[in-house]
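Q: My hope is that you can spare some time for a protein that puzzles me. Underneath my words sits a plain record pairing an amino acid chain with its backbone structure tokens. Those tokens are not coordinates but codes from a learned vocabulary of shapes. Thank you; the sequence and its tokens follow:
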Amino acid sequence: MPPDPTQSPSDEPTEPGHHFTPDIPTPPPPPPVPDLLARPVERRAVAPPANSTGLGDTARAWGIAMDFVVTVIGMALLGYFADRYFKASPIWTIVGLSTGFAFALYKIIRRTLADEKREAAERAASQDQRATDSRSRGS
């Protein structure tokens, strides 16, 4: 095999099967870990709210979504069957779809306002309870 012009004579391997490895300086040691990061994090146990049912909010959201879908599809189907009964063009299907969408939005807005009102009453009651507790401790 002809000699490689890019290799100097000292770069040649001394044993067959070994390749030249350049001298790489040893990296410096890593810096010390700050004390703040070395200590474990102290976590306070957070108790769930007294009225929490676990997946209550998720179930409520799914209920609202399914109510919306069923209302829109139900009204569209009523419109479709009205079209078939009256042998009309798809006007009743469009009316049913539009009515279902409007009614579903109305139901969502009504439910959301009722939930906000209930949550505001719960917050006010819990604030009153905390104020009563702090006054009783201070006496």
